[in-house]
């Protein structure tokens, strides 16, 4: 009989954590036992795994005794505190927070792009930011086929990227707006918990995701730039591909959209060649038939593991430059599924 | 006493038409008499101008007898039918539809950018598309100061760009979604009246505005490319500035957002130099203070004539390249106000 694994899910009660449970239920990983861990506040809550009830436990270092795999999405400070404890006890952790992403000895992995980086792990594998994941899934097959020089991305990011409380806030604001009430009192979390002012997202656009850096870029934009380089080129400051980003929160509950402009090495590449490559690319579903109004939409991507790509067009004034539109479920491919997929690949490659 | 003008508003009962009435009330044009024109269906409806009741009349060629200025926003086919009749009777028309925009002898005018083109009119002046207007207002001062090479724009366009019925549809869908009902039955207009399939916009993103061209670009994207060239360079196919666009409808009632990437001639230009130019630019309000979370938002732009610009950032890997975020009320600067402003400038320059 093949090995079975004890798995702990850290942050099991959140928007991503509950989806990690579902994705693990549907995964190829042989699971012996599941521990659902959270803060003291959520301890005692009843959840289930494959139909069996599981009681949520408060996370302590001893929670990781005998655990083989940790899937973590409880916030950066929780990961920083507990994952070293789990590693000390022999577990391999896939961390969905930004805590370790830029550590040189922590692989930052999207399996469709850089699965081979998993072998360099020292107990922790980092899951990239949601907006980065869907972009690199769509661009890597193009890079492999034709080379990639420059990426200019504008995001249309869903509220759930800021957690369940942001989703609730969008819902409350939307109802208040429709009832003719003032939405401003509802705004307590967005654009970002970590900053001073809060603004309504319902029926609005917020060009701020995370806090701002000194150069005017938001930290989300910084992540898209440097994570993309680390994932594709194994160097967060690599110059071979130039990347810039504008990240905007939109009043959508789940699934991010991205308008991506990119240039390839070969100026003779055509849209048909790009479509041919994307049609067979891992994790990609091509939805690109404008004549029949077929293109990716968030409401159709919710609950799916795939990255949906459409609206491929040549920039007719710049040979080798193209526009495309990419949508994926930020809580699945952007978080829970990519985390579980990394764990699946660790198991399949004998790295746990 | 200075001359007073007889003004007709064609399409007076629509989302833009009602705002044309308000903008004309507040304008510097000395108005003798106002005629409110619409289809037979709306004839008889009571509206008001400067506190006086005005009955909406059905549009006929004879409606334009004695009219000096026509402000038109009743759809392209209505403009094509009636504006030549109005011109024949001696009126000067400012047309907010796309009917005449690409005619070589029709100036396409945003007064802050190319007011001088008004003098070449032959009875008709065209108002550009809403998404084009706010982009050229923000970019022209930069072009004047530093030269402009390339524009890559991704839009976040409000439902009202598709008319009052699209606004109503967004509202109905939003309420149905919050009530847990299926939104799909509500979708009868968006993404565009002129195409076969209709999709919900509420809590969703639709990367289609207007119908698709053979090259995969939507007609809205085509407009942004060619109108920008005609307005800035007086040639819809000019090569001096390269333009590409991705247009997306977002679940916002009023005010478009635009993420604009652009390159200038001088690679030494800094963000501070751009801000200095934009601070004093006509029609522009600079809202760019990330440290205090100040940036343009649709809910703050509604009802304003200005174009709001923020999130200015250098692309640190490409000298002379920048990102910015631009928001304006698509029904005012993008339509009603730019139309009335064109009429104001025609009057002020003695061109009527």
From TrEMBL, chains A, B:
Query: What residue stretches are annotated with the Semialdehyde dehydrogenase NAD-binding domain?
Result: 6-121
Q: Which InterPro entries match?
A: Asp_semialdehyde_DH, Asp_semialdehyde_DH_beta, NAD(P)-bd_dom_sf, Semialdehyde_DH_NAD-bd, Semialdhyde_DH_dimer_dom
- What CDD domains does UniProt report for this protein, alphabetically? ASADH_C_bac_euk_like (cd18131), VcASADH2_like_N (cd02316)
Q: Does the keyword ATP-binding apply?
A: no
Tell me where on the tree of life, at the top rank, the source sits: Bacteria
EC id = 1.2.1.11
Instruction: Provide the catalytic activity annotation.
Output: L-aspartate 4-semialdehyde + phosphate + NADP(+) = 4-phospho-L-aspartate + NADPH + H(+)
Amino acids binding phosphate? 101
Give the pathway.
Amino-acid biosynthesis; L-methionine biosynthesis via de novo pathway; L-homoserine from L-aspartate: step 2/3; Amino-acid biosynthesis; L-lysine biosynthesis via DAP pathway; (S)-tetrahydrodipicolinate from L-aspartate: step 2/4; Amino-acid biosynthesis; L-threonine biosynthesis; L-threonine from L-aspartate: step 2/5
User: Could you name the active-site residues?
Assistant: 130, 256
SUPFAM superfamilies noted in UniProt: Glyceraldehyde-3-phosphate dehydrogenase-like, C-terminal domain (SSF55347), NAD(P)-binding Rossmann-fold domains (SSF51735)
Q: Report the sequence similarity comment from the record.
A: Belongs to the aspartate-semialdehyde dehydrogenase family.
Q: Spell out the PANTHER family in the cross-references.
A: ASPARTATE-SEMIALDEHYDE DEHYDROGENASE, DEHYDROGENASE, PUTATIVE-RELATED
NCBIfam families linked to this entry: asd_B (TIGR01296), PRK14874.1 (NF011456)
Q: How does it assemble?
A: Homodimer.
Q: What is this protein called?
A: Aspartate-semialdehyde dehydrogenase
| Name of the gene encoding the protein in the UniProt record | asd
């Amino acid at each position: 009989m093949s090995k079975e694994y004890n798995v702990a899910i850290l942050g099991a009660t959140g928007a991503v954590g509950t989806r990690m449970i579902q994705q693990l239920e549907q995964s190829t990983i042989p699971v012996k036992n599941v521990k659902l861990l959270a803060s003291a506040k959520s301890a005692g809550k009843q959840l289930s795994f494959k139909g069996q009830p599981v009681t949520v436990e408060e996370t302590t270092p001893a929670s990781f005794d005998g655990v083989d795999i940790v899937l973590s999405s409880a916030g950066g400070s929780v990961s920083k505190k507990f994952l070293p404890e789990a590693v000390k006890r022999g577990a391999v952790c896939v961390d969905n927070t930004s805590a370790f992403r830029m550590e040189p000895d922590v692989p930052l992995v999207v399996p469709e792009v850089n699965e081979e980086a998993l072998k360099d792990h020292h107990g922790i594998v980092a899951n990239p930011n949601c907006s980065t994941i869907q972009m690199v899934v769509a661009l890597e097959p193009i890079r492999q086929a034709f080379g990639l020089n420059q990426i200019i991305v504008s995001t249309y990011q869903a509220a759930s990227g800021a957690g369940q409380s942001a989703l609730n806030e969008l819902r409350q604001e939307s109802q208040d707006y429709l009832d003719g009430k003032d939405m401003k009192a509802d705004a307590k979390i967005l654009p970002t918990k970590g900053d001073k002012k809060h603004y309504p997202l319902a029926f609005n656009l917020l060009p701020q995701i995370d806090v701002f850096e000194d150069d005017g870029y938001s930290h989300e934009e910084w992540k898209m730039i440097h994570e993309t380089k680390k994932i594709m080129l194994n160097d967060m400051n690599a110059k071979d591909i130039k990347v810039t980003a504008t990240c905007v929160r939109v009043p959508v509950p789940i699934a991010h959209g991205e308008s991506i402009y990119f240039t390839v090495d070969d100026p003779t590449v055509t849209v048909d060649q790009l479509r041919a490559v994307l049609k067979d690319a891992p994790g990609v579903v091509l939805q690109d038939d404008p004549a029949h109004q077929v293109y990716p939409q968030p409401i159709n991507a919710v609950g799916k593991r795939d990255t949906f790509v459409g609206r491929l067009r040549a920039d007719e004034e710049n040979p080798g430059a193209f526009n495309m539109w990419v949508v994926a479920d930020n809580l699945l491919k952007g978080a829970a599924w990519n985390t579980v997929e990394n764990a699946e690949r660790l198991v399949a490659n004998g790295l746990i």
